[in-house]
Protein backbone atom coordinates (compact mmCIF):
# COMPACT_ATOMS: atom_id res chain seq x y z
CA UNK A 1 0.00 0.00 0.00
CA UNK A 2 2.76 2.37 1.00
CA UNK A 3 4.81 1.52 -2.10
CA UNK A 4 1.88 2.08 -4.39
CA UNK A 5 1.25 5.55 -2.97
CA UNK A 6 4.85 6.58 -3.54
CA UNK A 7 4.82 5.35 -7.11
CA UNK A 8 1.69 7.26 -7.94
CA UNK A 9 3.04 10.42 -6.34
CA UNK A 10 6.28 10.11 -8.28
CA UNK A 11 4.49 9.55 -11.57
CA UNK A 12 2.29 12.57 -10.93
CA UNK A 13 5.34 14.70 -10.28
CA UNK A 14 6.97 13.65 -13.56
CA UNK A 15 3.80 14.24 -15.52
CA UNK A 16 3.39 17.62 -13.92
CA UNK A 17 6.89 18.75 -14.82
CA UNK A 18 6.07 18.44 -18.50
CA UNK A 19 2.55 19.75 -18.02
CA UNK A 20 3.97 22.87 -16.39
CA UNK A 21 5.83 23.62 -19.62
CA UNK A 22 2.69 23.13 -21.65
CA UNK A 23 1.06 25.84 -19.63
CA UNK A 24 4.22 27.87 -20.30
CA UNK A 25 2.35 30.47 -22.26
CA UNK A 26 0.34 31.13 -19.12
CA UNK A 27 -2.98 30.35 -20.77
CA UNK A 28 -4.67 28.70 -17.83
CA UNK A 29 -3.53 31.36 -15.35
CA UNK A 30 -4.48 34.20 -17.72
CA UNK A 31 -8.04 32.90 -18.03
CA UNK A 32 -8.36 32.63 -14.26
CA UNK A 33 -7.07 36.19 -13.86
CA UNK A 34 -10.11 37.63 -15.67
CA UNK A 35 -12.14 37.63 -12.45
CA UNK A 36 -13.40 41.17 -13.21
CA UNK A 37 -15.21 39.88 -16.31
CA UNK A 38 -18.38 37.83 -16.67
CA UNK A 39 -20.33 36.50 -13.71
CA UNK A 40 -18.58 36.07 -10.34
CA UNK A 41 -16.53 32.87 -10.42
CA UNK A 42 -16.97 32.35 -14.17
CA UNK A 43 -13.32 33.05 -15.07
CA UNK A 44 -12.08 30.66 -12.38
CA UNK A 45 -14.44 27.96 -13.64
CA UNK A 46 -13.36 28.49 -17.26
CA UNK A 47 -9.74 28.35 -16.19
CA UNK A 48 -10.28 25.07 -14.35
CA UNK A 49 -12.28 23.44 -17.14
CA UNK A 50 -9.71 24.52 -19.76
CA UNK A 51 -6.98 22.28 -18.35
CA UNK A 52 -8.62 19.07 -19.62
CA UNK A 53 -8.27 20.30 -23.22
CA UNK A 54 -4.48 20.39 -22.91
CA UNK A 55 -4.26 16.76 -21.87
CA UNK A 56 -3.24 14.06 -24.33
CA UNK A 57 -6.63 12.35 -24.38
CA UNK A 58 -8.57 15.44 -25.46
CA UNK A 59 -9.83 15.96 -28.99
CA UNK A 60 -7.78 18.96 -30.25
CA UNK A 61 -10.95 20.70 -31.44
CA UNK A 62 -12.19 20.87 -27.82
CA UNK A 63 -9.67 23.55 -26.91
CA UNK A 64 -10.95 25.76 -29.75
CA UNK A 65 -14.55 25.41 -28.62
CA UNK A 66 -13.46 26.24 -25.09
CA UNK A 67 -11.75 29.40 -26.39
CA UNK A 68 -15.01 30.41 -28.10
CA UNK A 69 -16.82 29.77 -24.82
CA UNK A 70 -14.41 32.04 -22.96
CA UNK A 71 -15.23 34.90 -25.33
CA UNK A 72 -18.96 34.24 -25.18
CA UNK A 73 -18.93 34.26 -21.38
CA UNK A 74 -16.26 36.86 -20.60
CA UNK A 75 -16.76 39.17 -23.58
CA UNK A 76 -14.57 40.67 -26.27
CA UNK A 77 -12.37 42.98 -24.21
CA UNK A 78 -8.72 42.90 -25.20
CA UNK A 79 -7.91 40.97 -22.02
CA UNK A 80 -10.54 38.31 -22.72
CA UNK A 81 -9.47 37.95 -26.37
CA UNK A 82 -5.81 37.73 -25.33
CA UNK A 83 -6.59 34.99 -22.80
CA UNK A 84 -8.73 33.04 -25.28
CA UNK A 85 -6.00 33.34 -27.91
CA UNK A 86 -3.59 32.06 -25.30
CA UNK A 87 -5.65 28.90 -24.97
CA UNK A 88 -5.79 28.43 -28.77
CA UNK A 89 -2.00 28.85 -28.79
CA UNK A 90 -1.33 26.57 -25.80
CA UNK A 91 0.49 23.31 -26.35
CA UNK A 92 -1.58 20.17 -26.02
CA UNK A 93 0.16 17.18 -24.52
CA UNK A 94 0.54 13.86 -26.34
CA UNK A 95 1.50 10.46 -25.08
CA UNK A 96 5.11 9.91 -26.23
CA UNK A 97 4.73 6.14 -25.77
CA UNK A 98 2.00 6.05 -28.41
CA UNK A 99 2.82 8.82 -30.89
CA UNK A 100 5.70 11.17 -31.68
CA UNK A 101 3.81 14.08 -33.21
CA UNK A 102 0.99 16.33 -31.98
CA UNK A 103 -2.68 16.26 -32.98
CA UNK A 104 -4.25 19.42 -34.38
CA UNK A 105 -7.89 20.27 -35.10
CA UNK A 106 -8.90 20.03 -38.77
CA UNK A 107 -12.37 21.56 -38.44
CA UNK A 108 -12.38 24.74 -40.55
CA UNK A 109 -15.27 26.26 -38.60
CA UNK A 110 -13.27 26.39 -35.35
CA UNK A 111 -12.71 28.59 -33.53
CA UNK A 112 -15.84 30.45 -34.57
CA UNK A 113 -14.82 33.76 -32.97
CA UNK A 114 -13.23 35.90 -35.68
CA UNK A 115 -10.64 37.40 -33.32
CA UNK A 116 -9.40 33.90 -32.41
CA UNK A 117 -8.87 32.69 -35.97
CA UNK A 118 -5.38 32.45 -37.46
CA UNK A 119 -3.79 31.65 -34.07
CA UNK A 120 -1.70 28.45 -34.10
CA UNK A 121 -0.47 26.40 -31.14
CA UNK A 122 2.89 25.81 -29.56
CA UNK A 123 4.18 22.25 -29.90
CA UNK A 124 6.49 19.99 -27.96
CA UNK A 125 10.12 21.11 -28.47
CA UNK A 126 11.02 17.45 -29.18
CA UNK A 127 9.09 17.40 -32.46
CA UNK A 128 10.99 17.96 -35.70
CA UNK A 129 9.99 21.35 -37.08
CA UNK A 130 9.29 22.91 -33.69
CA UNK A 131 11.48 25.99 -34.19
CA UNK A 132 9.33 27.27 -37.03
CA UNK A 133 6.02 26.28 -35.48
CA UNK A 134 6.77 27.70 -32.04
CA UNK A 135 7.89 30.98 -33.65
CA UNK A 136 4.71 31.01 -35.74
CA UNK A 137 2.62 30.41 -32.63
CA UNK A 138 4.17 33.31 -30.71
CA UNK A 139 3.68 35.62 -33.68
CA UNK A 140 0.10 34.53 -34.25
CA UNK A 141 -1.03 35.63 -30.79
CA UNK A 142 -0.56 39.26 -31.74
CA UNK A 143 -0.76 38.96 -35.53
CA UNK A 144 -2.96 36.03 -36.51
CA UNK A 145 -2.30 34.38 -39.87
CA UNK A 146 -4.87 34.51 -42.70
CA UNK A 147 -7.51 31.92 -41.82
CA UNK A 148 -10.64 32.53 -43.88
CA UNK A 149 -12.19 29.12 -44.41
CA UNK A 150 -9.14 27.34 -43.01
CA UNK A 151 -8.84 24.99 -40.05
CA UNK A 152 -6.07 25.58 -37.52
CA UNK A 153 -4.38 22.53 -39.09
CA UNK A 154 -4.52 24.11 -42.56
CA UNK A 155 -3.20 27.43 -41.25
CA UNK A 156 -0.23 25.59 -39.75
CA UNK A 157 0.48 23.78 -43.02
CA UNK A 158 0.13 27.04 -44.95
CA UNK A 159 2.74 28.55 -42.62
CA UNK A 160 5.21 25.73 -43.23
CA UNK A 161 4.70 23.18 -40.44
CA UNK A 162 3.05 19.85 -41.19
CA UNK A 163 4.62 17.30 -38.86
CA UNK A 164 1.34 16.54 -37.06
CA UNK A 165 -1.85 14.51 -37.27
CA UNK A 166 -5.01 16.38 -38.27
CA UNK A 167 -8.08 15.36 -36.28
CA UNK A 168 -11.68 16.37 -36.84
CA UNK A 169 -14.36 16.77 -34.17
CA UNK A 170 -15.46 13.16 -34.62
CA UNK A 171 -11.89 11.98 -34.01
CA UNK A 172 -11.11 11.02 -37.63
CA UNK A 173 -7.38 11.37 -38.29
CA UNK A 174 -5.35 12.13 -41.40
CA UNK A 175 -1.74 13.11 -41.94
CA UNK A 176 -1.27 16.87 -42.15
CA UNK A 177 0.52 16.44 -45.48
CA UNK A 178 -2.81 15.49 -47.09
CA UNK A 179 -4.52 18.74 -46.09
CA UNK A 180 -5.16 21.62 -48.45
CA UNK A 181 -3.54 24.87 -47.40
CA UNK A 182 -6.06 27.23 -48.84
CA UNK A 183 -9.82 27.48 -48.71
CA UNK A 184 -9.71 28.91 -52.21
CA UNK A 185 -7.43 26.33 -53.79
CA UNK A 186 -8.36 23.11 -52.06
CA UNK A 187 -6.21 20.08 -51.52
CA UNK A 188 -6.88 18.69 -54.95
CA UNK A 189 -7.46 20.29 -58.30
CA UNK A 190 -9.86 17.62 -59.47
CA UNK A 191 -13.45 18.72 -59.28
CA UNK A 192 -16.55 16.60 -59.38
CA UNK A 193 -18.26 18.09 -62.36
CA UNK A 194 -20.95 15.43 -62.41
CA UNK A 195 -22.20 16.62 -59.06
CA UNK A 196 -23.27 20.08 -60.08
CA UNK A 197 -26.09 21.30 -57.96
CA UNK A 198 -27.73 24.43 -56.78
CA UNK A 199 -27.06 24.90 -53.10
CA UNK A 200 -30.37 25.43 -51.40
CA UNK A 201 -29.53 28.21 -49.01
CA UNK A 202 -26.17 28.07 -47.37
CA UNK A 203 -22.73 27.00 -48.54
CA UNK A 204 -22.22 25.49 -45.15
CA UNK A 205 -24.68 22.70 -45.87
CA UNK A 206 -22.62 21.00 -48.62
CA UNK A 207 -21.05 17.86 -47.26
CA UNK A 208 -19.87 16.17 -50.44
CA UNK A 209 -17.62 17.09 -53.31
CA UNK A 210 -19.63 19.18 -55.69
CA UNK A 211 -19.80 22.31 -57.74
CA UNK A 212 -22.49 24.56 -56.45
CA UNK A 213 -23.92 27.95 -57.07
CA UNK A 214 -25.68 29.73 -54.29
CA UNK A 215 -27.57 32.98 -54.23
CA UNK A 216 -27.55 35.50 -51.39
CA UNK A 217 -25.00 33.61 -49.38
CA UNK A 218 -24.14 34.94 -45.95
CA UNK A 219 -20.58 34.32 -44.84
CA UNK A 220 -18.93 35.89 -41.80
CA UNK A 221 -21.91 38.20 -41.43
CA UNK A 222 -21.48 39.53 -44.96
CA UNK A 223 -24.02 38.91 -47.72
CA UNK A 224 -22.80 38.04 -51.17
CA UNK A 225 -24.73 38.10 -54.39
CA UNK A 226 -23.70 34.85 -56.04
CA UNK A 227 -20.98 32.32 -55.43
CA UNK A 228 -19.81 29.51 -57.67
CA UNK A 229 -17.46 27.08 -56.10
CA UNK A 230 -16.03 23.60 -56.44
CA UNK A 231 -15.50 21.40 -53.44
CA UNK A 232 -13.34 18.32 -53.03
CA UNK A 233 -12.95 15.95 -50.14
CA UNK A 234 -15.74 15.28 -47.70
CA UNK A 235 -16.88 15.94 -44.17
CA UNK A 236 -14.64 18.23 -42.19
CA UNK A 237 -11.88 17.83 -44.79
CA UNK A 238 -14.06 19.31 -47.52
CA UNK A 239 -12.18 22.12 -49.23
CA UNK A 240 -13.75 24.48 -51.67
CA UNK A 241 -12.70 26.93 -54.30
CA UNK A 242 -14.65 29.96 -55.49
CA UNK A 243 -12.73 31.05 -58.58
CA UNK A 244 -15.03 33.48 -60.29
CA UNK A 245 -17.32 35.20 -57.95
CA UNK A 246 -19.91 37.83 -58.64
CA UNK A 247 -19.95 39.76 -55.42
CA UNK A 248 -21.29 42.91 -57.05
CA UNK A 249 -19.51 46.17 -57.67
CA UNK A 250 -18.58 48.59 -54.94
CA UNK A 251 -21.27 51.18 -54.81
CA UNK A 252 -20.58 54.71 -53.69
CA UNK A 253 -16.94 53.94 -52.92
CA UNK A 254 -15.99 57.26 -51.36
CA UNK A 255 -18.61 58.14 -48.74
CA UNK A 256 -20.27 54.74 -48.98
CA UNK A 257 -23.74 53.40 -48.31
CA UNK A 258 -25.11 54.11 -44.87
CA UNK A 259 -28.14 52.39 -43.43
CA UNK A 260 -29.20 55.31 -41.26
CA UNK A 261 -29.12 56.04 -37.56
CA UNK A 262 -29.22 53.25 -35.00
CA UNK A 263 -28.48 53.57 -31.30
CA UNK A 264 -25.92 51.50 -29.43
CA UNK A 265 -27.31 48.36 -27.81
CA UNK A 266 -25.44 49.54 -24.71
CA UNK A 267 -27.87 52.03 -23.17
CA UNK A 268 -25.04 53.71 -21.24
CA UNK A 269 -23.46 54.85 -24.48
CA UNK A 270 -25.05 57.78 -26.33
CA UNK A 271 -23.28 58.59 -29.59
CA UNK A 272 -25.47 61.63 -30.26
CA UNK A 273 -26.11 62.21 -33.94
CA UNK A 274 -23.64 59.58 -35.11
CA UNK A 275 -23.27 55.84 -35.58
CA UNK A 276 -19.61 55.13 -34.73
CA UNK A 277 -19.27 51.90 -36.72
CA UNK A 278 -16.34 50.94 -38.91
CA UNK A 279 -16.30 49.01 -42.19
CA UNK A 280 -13.57 46.98 -43.87
CA UNK A 281 -13.83 46.87 -47.65
CA UNK A 282 -11.79 46.38 -50.78
CA UNK A 283 -11.76 48.88 -53.60
CA UNK A 284 -12.58 51.96 -51.54
CA UNK A 285 -11.72 55.32 -52.99
CA UNK A 286 -9.88 53.98 -56.05
CA UNK A 287 -8.02 51.15 -54.31
CA UNK A 288 -7.55 47.80 -56.04
CA UNK A 289 -10.31 45.21 -55.73
CA UNK A 290 -7.86 43.10 -53.71
CA UNK A 291 -6.87 45.86 -51.27
CA UNK A 292 -9.10 46.22 -48.23
CA UNK A 293 -9.05 49.23 -45.95
CA UNK A 294 -10.96 50.63 -42.97
CA UNK A 295 -13.38 53.53 -42.97
CA UNK A 296 -16.11 54.94 -40.76
CA UNK A 297 -19.58 54.09 -42.06
CA UNK A 298 -21.57 57.17 -41.07
CA UNK A 299 -21.05 60.06 -43.53
CA UNK A 300 -21.18 62.47 -40.58
CA UNK A 301 -18.15 60.69 -39.17
CA UNK A 302 -16.14 59.86 -42.29
CA UNK A 303 -16.50 63.29 -43.92
CA UNK A 304 -13.06 64.67 -44.73
CA UNK A 305 -11.24 61.47 -43.71
CA UNK A 306 -9.88 59.07 -46.32
CA UNK A 307 -10.08 55.34 -45.73
CA UNK A 308 -6.93 53.82 -44.24
CA UNK A 309 -4.98 50.57 -44.08
CA UNK A 310 -4.27 51.23 -40.42
CA UNK A 311 -7.45 50.80 -38.36
CA UNK A 312 -6.04 53.09 -35.64
CA UNK A 313 -6.34 56.07 -37.99
CA UNK A 314 -10.02 55.45 -38.44
CA UNK A 315 -10.75 54.69 -34.78
CA UNK A 316 -8.95 57.92 -33.86
CA UNK A 317 -11.05 59.85 -36.36
CA UNK A 318 -14.27 58.35 -35.07
CA UNK A 319 -13.27 59.26 -31.51
CA UNK A 320 -12.52 62.88 -32.50
CA UNK A 321 -15.80 63.23 -34.36
CA UNK A 322 -17.74 62.17 -31.26
CA UNK A 323 -16.75 65.55 -29.80
CA UNK A 324 -16.51 67.56 -33.04
CA UNK A 325 -19.82 66.79 -34.70
CA UNK A 326 -21.76 64.07 -32.90
CA UNK A 327 -22.44 65.44 -29.44
CA UNK A 328 -21.77 62.05 -27.83
CA UNK A 329 -21.90 61.64 -24.06
CA UNK A 330 -18.78 61.12 -21.94
CA UNK A 331 -19.41 57.39 -21.51
CA UNK A 332 -19.48 56.97 -25.30
CA UNK A 333 -16.22 58.91 -25.69
CA UNK A 334 -14.60 56.86 -22.94
CA UNK A 335 -15.80 53.62 -24.51
CA UNK A 336 -14.37 54.73 -27.85
CA UNK A 337 -11.03 55.52 -26.19
CA UNK A 338 -11.01 52.06 -24.58
CA UNK A 339 -11.92 50.45 -27.91
CA UNK A 340 -9.04 52.31 -29.59
CA UNK A 341 -6.69 50.64 -27.12
CA UNK A 342 -8.36 47.30 -27.79
CA UNK A 343 -7.88 47.61 -31.55
CA UNK A 344 -4.21 48.52 -31.19
CA UNK A 345 -3.81 45.57 -28.84
CA UNK A 346 -5.41 43.16 -31.30
CA UNK A 347 -2.87 44.12 -33.94
CA UNK A 348 -5.13 42.73 -36.68
CA UNK A 349 -6.04 44.40 -39.96
CA UNK A 350 -8.96 42.42 -41.23
CA UNK A 351 -12.71 42.02 -40.98
CA UNK A 352 -12.43 40.87 -37.38
CA UNK A 353 -10.83 44.20 -36.46
CA UNK A 354 -13.85 46.17 -37.64
CA UNK A 355 -16.17 43.67 -35.97
CA UNK A 356 -14.29 43.96 -32.67
CA UNK A 357 -14.61 47.76 -32.77
CA UNK A 358 -18.30 47.67 -33.58
CA UNK A 359 -18.98 45.07 -30.87
CA UNK A 360 -17.08 47.04 -28.25
CA UNK A 361 -19.33 50.04 -28.80
CA UNK A 362 -22.62 48.12 -28.82
CA UNK A 363 -22.99 47.58 -32.57
CA UNK A 364 -22.20 43.87 -32.79
CA UNK A 365 -23.22 42.26 -36.05
CA UNK A 366 -23.13 45.46 -38.09
CA UNK A 367 -22.63 44.74 -41.79
CA UNK A 368 -19.01 45.73 -42.32
CA UNK A 369 -19.39 45.64 -46.10
CA UNK A 370 -22.37 47.93 -46.75
CA UNK A 371 -21.05 48.79 -50.21
CA UNK A 372 -20.91 45.21 -51.56
CA UNK A 373 -17.17 45.38 -52.08
CA UNK A 374 -15.43 42.31 -53.52
CA UNK A 375 -14.69 39.75 -50.81
CA UNK A 376 -12.41 37.25 -52.51
CA UNK A 377 -11.12 34.58 -50.21
CA UNK A 378 -14.22 34.37 -48.05
CA UNK A 379 -15.81 31.05 -48.98
CA UNK A 380 -18.15 28.71 -47.28
CA UNK A 381 -17.22 25.34 -45.90
CA UNK A 382 -18.68 22.58 -43.78
C1 LIG B 1 8.16 14.54 -37.07
O1 LIG B 1 8.64 14.60 -35.72
C2 LIG B 1 9.00 13.33 -35.21
C3 LIG B 1 9.32 13.54 -33.75
O2 LIG B 1 10.35 14.43 -33.61
C4 LIG B 1 10.15 12.75 -36.00
O3 LIG B 1 10.45 11.46 -35.52
C5 LIG B 1 9.77 12.67 -37.45
O4 LIG B 1 10.88 12.30 -38.22
C6 LIG B 1 9.27 14.02 -37.96
N1 LIG B 1 8.75 13.84 -39.31
C7 LIG B 1 9.06 14.69 -40.28
C8 LIG B 1 8.44 14.40 -41.61
O5 LIG B 1 9.82 15.66 -40.14
C1 LIG C 1 -19.27 12.97 -57.29
O1 LIG C 1 -20.25 13.26 -56.27
C2 LIG C 1 -21.27 12.30 -56.18
C3 LIG C 1 -22.26 12.76 -55.11
O2 LIG C 1 -22.32 14.09 -54.99
C4 LIG C 1 -20.69 10.95 -55.84
O3 LIG C 1 -21.71 9.99 -55.80
C5 LIG C 1 -19.63 10.57 -56.84
O4 LIG C 1 -19.01 9.39 -56.43
C6 LIG C 1 -18.59 11.66 -56.98
N1 LIG C 1 -17.65 11.33 -58.02
C7 LIG C 1 -16.33 11.51 -57.88
C8 LIG C 1 -15.49 11.11 -59.05
O5 LIG C 1 -15.85 11.97 -56.87
C1 LIG D 1 -21.77 49.45 -21.58
O1 LIG D 1 -20.73 50.39 -21.61
C2 LIG D 1 -20.14 50.61 -20.34
C3 LIG D 1 -19.16 51.74 -20.50
O2 LIG D 1 -18.22 51.43 -21.50
C4 LIG D 1 -19.50 49.31 -19.87
O3 LIG D 1 -18.93 49.50 -18.60
C5 LIG D 1 -20.55 48.24 -19.80
O4 LIG D 1 -19.92 47.01 -19.49
C6 LIG D 1 -21.25 48.11 -21.12
N1 LIG D 1 -22.34 47.15 -21.00
C7 LIG D 1 -22.48 46.12 -21.84
C8 LIG D 1 -23.67 45.28 -21.60
O5 LIG D 1 -21.69 45.90 -22.73
Describe the model.
The model is unreliable at 1-24, 183-229, 242-251 and 376-382 (pLDDT under 50). A hairpin with a 2-residue loop joins strand 6 (218-219) and strand 7 (222-223). This protein is α+β, with helices and mostly antiparallel strands. 34% of the residues lie in helices and 11% in strands. The chain has two domains: 2-200, no CATH class; 210-360, no CATH class. It has a four-stranded mixed beta sheet with strand order 4-5-8-9, with no helix packed on it. The protein starts with a helix and ends in a 22-residue tail after the last helix. The structure holds 2-acetamido-2-deoxy-beta-D-glucopyranose (3 copies). The site of one 2-acetamido-2-deoxy-beta-D-glucopyranose has 5 residues, from helix 10. It comes from Hyaloscypha hepaticicola. This is Circumsporozoite protein.
Largest sheet: 4 strands, mixed
Number of separate helices: 11
Number of domains: 2
Oligomer: single chain
Write down the overall geometry: globular
Describe the secondary-structure layout.
Layout: H1 2-22, H2 27-32, H3 42-50, H4 60-74, H5 78-89, E1 103-105, H6 130-142, H7 152-158, E2 165-167, E3 173-175, E4 196-198, E5 210-215, E6 218-219, E7 222-223, E8 226-232, E9 239-241, E10 278-282, E11 292-296, H8 299-302, H9 311-326, H10 330-346, H11 351-360
Helix pairs in contact: 3-4, 4-5, 5-6, 9-10, 10-11
The chain binds 2-acetamido-2-deoxy-beta-D-glucopyranose (3 copies).
One 2-acetamido-2-deoxy-beta-D-glucopyranose is lined by residues 266, 268-269, 331, 335.
Looking at this protein, list some descriptive labels:
single chain; 382 residues; alpha+beta; 4-stranded mixed β-sheet; 3-stranded mixed β-sheet; disordered N terminus; disordered C terminus; binds 2-acetamido-2-deoxy-beta-D-glucopyranose; Circumsporozoite protein; signal
Amino acid sequence: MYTQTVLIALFAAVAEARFGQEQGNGAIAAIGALSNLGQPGQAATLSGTSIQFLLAAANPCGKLKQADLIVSELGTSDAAIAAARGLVAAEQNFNPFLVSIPSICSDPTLPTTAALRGVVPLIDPAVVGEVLENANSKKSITTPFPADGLSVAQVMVAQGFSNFTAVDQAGNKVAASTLGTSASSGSSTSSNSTASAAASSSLATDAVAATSTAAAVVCGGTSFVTVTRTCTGSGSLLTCTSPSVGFGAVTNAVTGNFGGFVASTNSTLNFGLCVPTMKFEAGLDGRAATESTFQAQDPLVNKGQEEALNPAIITNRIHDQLTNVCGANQAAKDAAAAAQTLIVGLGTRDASTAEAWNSALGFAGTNINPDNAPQTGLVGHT
